[in-house]
Design brief:
The protein is an alpha/beta fold.
Length: 165
């Protein structure tokens, strides 16, 4: 898959966001001889992830509606209730992909953590099901444990996640 460099991004930030090492990124992008000289709009190959356009699934998150909609080839498959970030730690708006997943992450994160291509953010279960439907997280997307397990069985890494206001 490709990442398009945004203003202010560095190769180290991109590597961290996609949970890849800097050496992996540089090996996949041999034309980059100086990792300090990348520019906005540049395409960076992210090794080990399929192109999102090759995946029939897309996830649309509505912060306002507190819902996560799973699409398959553009058709709604399922709508899940979620919790989102509180006012001071809002869920980021933008387009991301699922880069990996961690079963049983421990703590308040429930039974599964699919990581997003923004370091520190993910879609995860919760040990506090009463929080679903509220703006209470530190920016992550919370789901009921059974819902995040169901979603994780369906969508592969590389699935596009669009977070809207």
């Amino acid at each position: 898959m490709y990442h398009i460099v945004k203003p202010g991004e560095t190769m180290s930030v991109i590597a961290q966001n996609y949970r890849r090492s800097l050496s992996e990124l540089l090996a996949a992008n041999p034309a980059i001889v100086n990792p300090g000289l990348i520019y906005p709009g540049q395409r960076i190959i992210i090794p080990g992830l399929p192109e999102p356009d090759s995946i029939p699934y897309t996830i649309i998150v509505s912060r306002g509606k507190k819902s996560l909609t799973l699409l398959s080839n553009g058709a709604v498959q399922k709508v899940y209730p979620i919790a989102v970030g509180k006012m001071l730690t809002q869920t980021p708006i933008g387009e991301f992909v699922i880069v990996n997943r961690e079963p049983e992450p421990g703590g308040p994160y429930g039974v599964m953590w699919p990581s997003l291509s923004k370091y520190g953010y993910g879609i995860h279960g919760t040990n506090n099901p009463s929080s679903i439907g509220q703006s209470v997280s530190k920016g992550c997307i919370r789901m009921y444990n059974q819902d995040v397990l169901q979603l994780s069985r369906i969508v592969p890494n590389g699935t596009r996640v669009i977070i809207q206001p």
